[in-house]
Write a structure and sequence with these properties.
Blueprint: H1 10-25, H2 30-51, H3 62-74, H4 79-92
Helix pairs in contact: 1-2, 2-4, 3-4
Length: about 110
């Protein structure tokens, strides 16, 4: 019996693209890479739940990133934490610019 290769979920497919993008930047510190990967994963989960994003390009929209910022504010995160989470999103996704997001002042 031949074992079939298991298909990846949509979230895993998007995270493969994010991982490739982060690896291309070649961060000298492995902790930065891991942190960006972890926060990008949370963002992708948000995109999937709220906007039903099915690919990397649909997660790259500014309105989705702004909604993610607003959701983090509602959850009670501090301004510094929100900025840290959004920095990972801005690095991982091409269409998201950190200076275009209305975020709380640190």
């Amino acid at each position: 019996m031949v074992k079939r290769k298991r298909r990846l979920s949509v979230t895993q497919q998007i995270m493969q693209d994010v991982d490739a993008k982060l690896k291309a930047k070649n961060y000298p510190n492995h902790k930065t890479y891991r942190q960006f990967l972890r926060h990008s994963y949370k963002y992708v989960q948000f995109c999937r739940e709220r906007y039903n994003c099915r690919d990397y390009d649909s997660c790259c929209r500014m309105e989705v990133a702004q909604a993610y910022c607003d959701d983090l504010k509602k959850q009670g995160y501090t301004a510094s934490t929100i900025h840290t989470y959004l920095a990972a999103v801005a690095v991982s996704f091409d269409g998201v610019k950190l200076n275009n997001i209305n975020k709380p002042v640190r």
